[in-house]
Amino acid sequence: MAFFNADRLAIIFGLLGNIISFLVFLAPLPTFYRICRKKSSEGFQSIPYSISFFSASSLLLYYAYLKTNAYMIVSINGIGCVIEALYIFLYILYAPKKVTLFTMRWILLFNGGGLGMIMLVSLLVVHGSKRVTLVGWVCAIINIDVFAAPLSVWYINVLFQIIFFSRYSHQLLVAASTSTLKILVRSYETI
What we know:
This protein is an all-alpha fold and about 190 residues long.
């Protein structure tokens, strides 16, 4: 039992969290394969990918900058940033002009306005370790939004009774498991 001390458990669950997060980043791959094959965005929404890009690229990398020794956060969010940027590029490439402008506005709003406001408040109002705590809570809320964003599309699908249960049950399972891991286990970077 001494093998499973708090430090080792934090590393194990941190690695499991990174693996689950990587799989979540890859979850839209069939959708983008379909978009590339048909050379059309086919009415898919860009909001889930915009929020995920904001979470991975800006907010969590800023959080990792504020923390010390945040290697796991930087590694998975760096990979996620590249994957989400590719998704958004492909979406914009095959979307109609009106949808492309809508997507670009969301990206500018999240990455420019949202991150700018969070940085401004955290740098001017909050100091010391409370800054990391504030940004950490904002990251947690945004992560919940990342998992909730596909549910907005799911609601539309329910209205039209086009539900692919395996895909959405997988999304809910991943959201529940990562949220539980984040709550129950302290991150490796706090050691």
